[in-house]
Amino acid sequence: VSRMRAGGVAGEDASAARVQDAVDEARLNAAVAALARFGGRDDGGVTRETLTPIDLAARRYLIDHARSLGCDVAIDACGNLFFRRAGQADLPPVLTGSHIDTQPVGGKLDGAYGVVAGLEVIHALNDAGVETRRPIEVVAWTNEEGARFAPGAMGSSAFVEPARLATYRESRDAEGIVFGAALDAALAASADLNRRALRSPVEACIELHIEQGPVLEAAGVPLGVVTAIQSVRWFTVALTGTAAHAGTTPMEVRSDAMHAAVSLAHRLYAFAAGAAQRGLRLTLGRWRVAPNSINTIPGKVDFTIDVRCVDESVLDEFERALRTSIADVDGGWAGAIELEKTFSRATTPFPAPMLEVIERGCARAAAAAGAPPPLQVTSGAFHDAMYLADLCPTAMIFVPSRAGISHNPAEYTDPHELYLGAQALAYAVTELANR
Amino acid sequence: VSRMRAGGVAGEDASAARVQDAVDEARLNAAVAALARFGGRDDGGVTRETLTPIDLAARRYLIDHARSLGCDVAIDACGNLFFRRAGQADLPPVLTGSHIDTQPVGGKLDGAYGVVAGLEVIHALNDAGVETRRPIEVVAWTNEEGARFAPGAMGSSAFVEPARLATYRESRDAEGIVFGAALDAALAASADLNRRALRSPVEACIELHIEQGPVLEAAGVPLGVVTAIQSVRWFTVALTGTAAHAGTTPMEVRSDAMHAAVSLAHRLYAFAAGAAQRGLRLTLGRWRVAPNSINTIPGKVDFTIDVRCVDESVLDEFERALRTSIADVDGGWAGAIELEKTFSRATTPFPAPMLEVIERGCARAAAAAGAPPPLQVTSGAFHDAMYLADLCPTAMIFVPSRAGISHNPAEYTDPHELYLGAQALAYAVTELANR
User: Fold this and answer.
1) Of A187, A325, A405, B283, which sits with the fewest C-beta atoms within 10 Å of its C-beta?
2) Statement: the pTM of the whole predicted model exceeds 0.90
3) CB A164 within 8 A of CB A158
4) Which residue of A has its CA nearest to B303?
5) How far apart (Å, rounded) are the C-alpha atoms in residues A47 and A36?
6) CA distances (Å), origin B105, targets B42, B48, B346, B412
7) Are A253 and B404 in contact (CB < 8 Å)?
């Protein structure tokens, strides 16, 4: 019999509601703090790059914790950890979780929160005495950040598309260690775990994560239903002019790569200002200037373009404007401009039935806390869920990030909001596991 | 009795003409090549940074060479070398010369040509059997390039204003060696030389140098009478916004330091385009972007401004436009912009009587070679002559730089043009030394 609480919503799942109500705010936040001690910094941040000794220690801590909750633990060929609470039937599991690796200097929550909250859901299932039809698994994906080994999201993308792993194994960190070697060492230290096949069947996947942006905070809303992950396209623009003496070279004979780069960048920012209302986000983040000397005309400049939008047609428009702008600037000087598209990923929409489950979980948790109902938001950042969406019905829940700050020791979410996020997750996972 | 040659000019000095005619093209070019062997590179360039073992070896070679020409050699407290051909009277000397240190990767001519040509003038004086009323000294100034120890032109500026030396002695190279220590070692190895006081009297100074710009070559003229060294002002603009995630941060809440920097730079380039006809030269040469990551909004950007013009009023106008542009851009975003003026040097005009002497020497050398008459040009680069102009009547002669290239192994001037430059120098130095 479910305890009906104020704010119970129409059509709610009684078991799911019981599990949601069994989530423990103090226990959840203690568990966040406990994991943050692995790689914890004096400034409040966390340094826990993937497959480092501190990451391996944190993994072992989670394994022990999950076993204490009655979970079986498995690991796959990419080092992803699966903490499994058995179901009544041996069906493909409902998966939740995120990653526990951090940026070189990160916060306590990015990734870690989703894993810890998943284990709290298992604790709540146990406390509520709820058995589910399907197994529930909490996953900790390997190397989401891509800080030590590029690219990011190795674990989730290799799980979904195992052919990627061979390439990933060759990726080298700053000290020359290949990912394959670090991975094999981690696997050798995990001989006590079950082995899980890559791309093994998954019924559905939910990732709970901090927003890493300012939208929920600005709206004063504790829970976000993520409808999609934005499309992103990356480019590098390389301008080659002629380095020459700043004093002796008249303006009319210069081939100044920075002058051309500024003309181009100015046009791109102008386009972005016009398209911001339609959700376009433009970042010219990395610049390299040579010879980069105060009294030498820049001979070479390259800069990166990161452009995102949920609406692919706006990105298509941007890309046309980019090519036109390059042609215009290129026609006006003696140098050369090269454009390279280095990455693109289409918008990842999450399916409506998944959004409905999450909406129910979020709405019930918010109502019980007297908080505003959940907001539909899009994710500007990549997440492991982006890859899982290629394998199974997937969705995400966001909680606010104070001042939108992430990848930073100052990363912070109100503990009560962390609790509401775990409650929403508990509801959604339980409902899905009973299908 | 002077040998009058075709193209002899009205009012010419008979002794000066004889010395000019005694300059030896083959000998001069062999001497350029001989000095270039000290630090010579396979790519045709020269690496001879100040007070390195290779620079000290080159100095010793010049000392021996000058002594073979009958010169006394002196050194001052900043390591400047003076090769002295005695005059009939013990009066302040006429000084010529330049520097022999190079950029980390430089050419054979920047600086070295002026020193070698000065010694060729002494050779020509000897061959012509001309005694002058005043002594003639060839100088090799220490550390003009400023590549190993900052700032540049240490030797000439300390000679003119000895109080600078104490600060210079603290300047540290990339390996942590202070200039004072390198200098003391060089002085200890020069115990056989006379000592010269800093700021000892000089009658007049002429520096012969490659143009390091494209003007003479474009005009097809082998000799330039330098009327002035451009005024220069250096600034650093530092923009501080907020680093944030490229994907999660909507355009309207960004404080993007690169966006602001591009807006500002775009305005500055537009101003420069309008003022180019009045001789303004604008270079935004050094850029630093933080965190300089493809998917992070730049939180901090700084860039340098090098702006030059012979006309100070144009620079004043630029500086007003700069401050107005900063105020405009600063008003349109949430970040902050700081402007620092890091260096300024007013235009150095060379006095008309000096220009007349040089004009005579250049005109006679050009006429004898059937070349176009000299062109009046301005120097866009700094030179030791800029500081000497504060002490005594000073002027400069330029020869062309192929494609305007300097600070590069590809630096090149036609050997015949090098010869004409040395001829012009011989004339001017002799005429001045007989006053």
Assistant:
1) A187
2) no
3) yes
4) A294
5) 9
6) 11, 8, 29, 14
7) yes
Residues B169-224 pLDDT 10s: 999 998 999 999 999 999 999 999 999 999 999 999 999 999 999 999 999 999 99
**Residue B328 Cα distances to A1, B116, B333, angstroms:** 66, 52, 9
**What is the C-alpha to C-alpha distance for residues A363 and A210, in angstroms, rounded to an integer?**
18
A308 CA: distance to closest CA in chain B (Å): 7
B39: left (phi over 0), alpha (psi -120 to 50) or beta: left
Instruction: Give the separation between CA B199 and CA B156, rounded to whole angstroms.
Output: 10
**How does DSSP assign B114-178, residue by residue?**
HHHHHHHHHHHHHHHT---SS-EEEEEES-SS-SSSSSS-HHHHHHHSTTHHHHHHT-B-TTS-B
Backbone angles phi, psi at A117, to 5 degrees: -65, -35
The end-to-end CA distance of chain A, in Å, is 19
The verdict on whether omega for the bond into residue B151 sits within 30 degrees of 0, i.e. cis, is: yes
Q: Tens digit of pLDDT for each residue in A60-84?
A: 999 999 999 999 999 999 999 999 9
| Predicted confidence (pLDDT) per residue in B57-108, tens digit | 999 999 999 999 999 999 999 999 999 999 999 999 999 999 999 998 899 9
pLDDT in tens, B246-293: 999 999 999 999 999 999 999 999 999 999 999 999 999 999 999 898
Beta strands per DSSP E along B255-374: 281-283, 287-290, 296-297, 300-309, 336-345, 348-349
Contact B223, B365 (CB under 8 A): yes
The structure tokens listed for A185 are 């060492």
Nearest to B242 by CA among B192, B189, B297: B297
Enumerate the residues of chain A whose CB falls inside 8 A of the CB of residue B266.
262-263, 266
Within A170-244, residue ranges assigned H as helices are 179-188, 215-219
ipTM, two decimals: 0.85
* A248 closest CB neighbour out of B213, B247, B272: B213
State whether B259 and A269 contact (CB < 8 Å).
Answer: yes
User: Two tokens at A356?
Assistant: 């409905």
User: Under a CB-based contact definition with an 8 Å cutoff, are residues A250 and B281 in contact?
Assistant: yes
Q: How many CB pairs under 8 A join A and B?
A: 189
Q: B60 φ, ψ to 5°?
A: -65, -40
Closest CA to A357 of A6, A13, A20, A2: A13
Chain A residues lying within 8 Å of B294, measured CB to CB: 234, 283, 285-286, 304, 306
Question: Taking a C-beta distance cutoff of 8 angstroms, is the pair B139, B200 a contact?
Answer: no
Tokens 């451009």 appear where? B230
What Rg, from alpha-carbon coordinates, does chain A have?
Answer: 24
The Cα-based distances of B33 to A240, A402, B28, B42, B112 in angstroms read 33, 67, 9, 14, 10
d(CA B108, CA B111): 8
Cα→Cα distances A193→A60, A71, A72, A186, A309, Å:
11, 11, 8, 11, 41
Q: Are B404 and A281 in contact (CB < 8 Å)?
A: no
In this structure, are residues B119 and B31 in contact, taking their beta carbons and an 8 Å threshold? Answer: yes
> What whole-number distance in Å separates Cα of residue B431 and Cα of residue A109?
81
Which value, in Å, is the radius of gyration of the alpha carbons in chain B?
A: 24
Listed in order, strand segments (DSSP E) in A122-203 are: 136-141, 194-195
Helix axes A415-433, A14-22, angle to 10 degrees: 150
Contact state of A294 with B306 under an 8 Å Cβ cutoff: yes
Length of chain B: 435
Which amino acid type is present at position B23? V
Q: Mutation target for A interface from B230, B264, B295, B300: give the one with most A CBs within 10 A.
A: B295
SS3 B239: strand
What distance in Å separates residue B265's CA from the closest CA in chain A?
7
Q: Inter-chain contact B285–A297, Cβ cutoff 8 Å?
A: yes
